[in-house]
């Protein structure tokens, strides 16, 4: 019997291995193509999905999702939500901004759910709450590098964008996790959710307070060696909390988000920056790109390119601006009128979470493939159009002197 690696390679057919190689090639090409021209910086996630569509069954038919790609893709999705939790901690958004952003998101989700009910009643093949949550998301990671280059960080508008963005990433994950949990009755599910939250809080408390000197020494010793103990413990935390969430009947994305919060609290120091960079290398350098390229492989481009599909995508794009942009009204006293309009555009920028919501809800039969394609299409246009319009509205500003957040993978 040969070594395990030989057995694994022998089990992969030539076609399956070709698909994996092409997915990795598309992920690598996306990182280069999105930065070829300094004047036109494309969100990497958009390029990844487009390249996935190009090599997928509906265009060139060179690659398709198989068991191995699906496994890596699911791991990438878990890492995507993990980094959403990590980002909530590492951005150091003022508490008042987070509170106001959360109140604004409450306004957005209420409006989105009303819109979702209207659309479902009108015949759109998706459950109303899926539409409502998808329309109430914000892609903060996509906005960060754009706003730093525009000199927006360190201003009142930058604070408003951070508060809006953190709420627009965190709360949709919580809501989608709760709505997709249907193993038990509503009362039991709420108790399980509260119990899981208590477990996460306990884990965070233990991680912050229980720091034996020998363990700390081992962590510090292996940061720049092959040991990488801190990275391994972070990935273990992700795996354990995902396993616990799934085991008790909760959605796995909630476990991934919780792991990001716990690890983010532990790494919230200058010493943790190196570990975060290592984790970003694993996530944004390997697993998350596979997820988005795989999304392109299964993307229903034929449905999107029909007259009805394009019309629905245009409608979703307008609704993104209305539903998510409504939260900007809460900042109208602090911001000038044009800054307030720009905040509405920035808040309505959302693709990665829309893709994830469509993916998870689609697996549960809560949204049709054709509707999901239109939602993702609207999200792609939003990240290409809304930030550029917002920057154009506020005009050029001097780069802020505020410390830059960690940017590895922030185009997501």
Structural features, described:
The structure is a single chain. With 412 residues, the chain is mainly alpha-helical. The protein has a domain at 16-167 and 282-394: Na+/H+ antiporter like fold, CATH 1.20.1530.20. Helices cover 73% and strands 0% of the residues. The chain contains 18 helices and no strands. Helix 5 packs across helix 8 (156-180), helix 11 packs across helix 13 and helix 15 crosses helix 16. The protein is globular.
Radius of gyration: 21 Å
Average pLDDT figure: 84
CATH topology of the domain at 16-167 and 282-394: Na+/H+ antiporter like fold
Strand content: under 5%
Order of helices and strands: HHHHHHHHHHHHHHHHHH
**Largest sheet: number of strands, sense, barrel closure:** none
Please work out how many helical segments DSSP would assign.
Answer: 18
Task: List segments where confidence is low: pLDDT < 50 over at least 5 consecutive residues.
Answer: 399-411
Q: Count every beta strand, where a strand is a DSSP E run of 2 or more residues.
A: 0
As a percent range, the share of helical residues equals over 70%
Terminus-to-terminus distance: 43 Å
The CATH class of the domain at 16-167 and 282-394 is identified as Mainly Alpha
CATH architecture of the domain at 16-167 and 282-394: Up-down Bundle
Shape category: globular
Main structural class = mainly alpha
């Amino acid at each position: 019997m040969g070594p395990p690696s030989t057995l694994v390679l022998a089990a992969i057919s030539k076609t399956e291995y070709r698909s994996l190689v092409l997915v990795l090639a598309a992920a690598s090409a996306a990182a280069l193509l999105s930065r070829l021209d300094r004047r036109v910086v494309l969100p990497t996630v958009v390029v990844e999905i487009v390249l996935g569509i190009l090599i997928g069954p509906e265009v060139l038919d060179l690659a398709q999702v198989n068991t191995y790609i699906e496994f890596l893709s699911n791991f990438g999705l878990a890492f995507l939500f993990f980094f959403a939790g990590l980002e909530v901690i590492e951005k150091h958004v003022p508490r008042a901004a987070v509170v106001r952003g959360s109140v604004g998101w409450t306004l957005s989700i209420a409006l989105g759910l009303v819109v979702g009910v209207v659309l479902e009643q009108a015949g759109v093949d998706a459950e109303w709450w899926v539409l409502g949550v998808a329309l109430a998301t914000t892609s903060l990671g996509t906005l960060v590098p754009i706003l730093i280059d525009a000199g927006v960080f360190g201003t009142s508008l930058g604070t408003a964008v951070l508060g809006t963005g953190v709420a627009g990433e965190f709360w949709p994950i919580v809501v989608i996790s709760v709505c997709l949990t249907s193993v038990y009755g509503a009362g039991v599910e709420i108790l399980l959710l509260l119990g899981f939250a208590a477990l996460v809080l306990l884990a965070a408390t233990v991680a912050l307070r229980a720091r034996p000197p020998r363990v700390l020494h081992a962590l510090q010793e292996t940061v720049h060696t092959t040991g990488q103990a801190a990275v391994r413990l972070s990935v273990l935390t992700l795996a354990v909390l995902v396993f616990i969430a799934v085991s008790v009947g909760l959605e796995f994305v909630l476990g991934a988000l919780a792991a990001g919060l716990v690890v983010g609290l532990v790494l919230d120091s200058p010493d943790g920056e190196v570990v975060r960079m290592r984790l970003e290398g694993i996530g944004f350098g390997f697993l998350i790109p596979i997820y988005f390229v795989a999304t392109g492989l299964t993307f229903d481009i034929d449905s999107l390119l029909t007259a009805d599909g394009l019309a629905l995508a245009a409608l979703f794009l307008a609704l993104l601006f209305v539903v998510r942009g409504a939260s900007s009204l809460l900042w109208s006293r602090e911001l000038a009128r044009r800054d307030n309009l720009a905040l509405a555009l920035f808040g309505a920028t959302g693709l990665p979470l829309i893709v994830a919501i469509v993916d998870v809800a689609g697996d549960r039969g809560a949204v049709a493939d054709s509707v999901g394609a239109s939602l993702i299409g609207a999200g792609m246009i939003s990240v290409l159009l809304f930030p550029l319009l917002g920057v154009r509205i506020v005009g050029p500003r001097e780069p802020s002197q505020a410390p830059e957040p960690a940017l590895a993978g922030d185009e997501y």
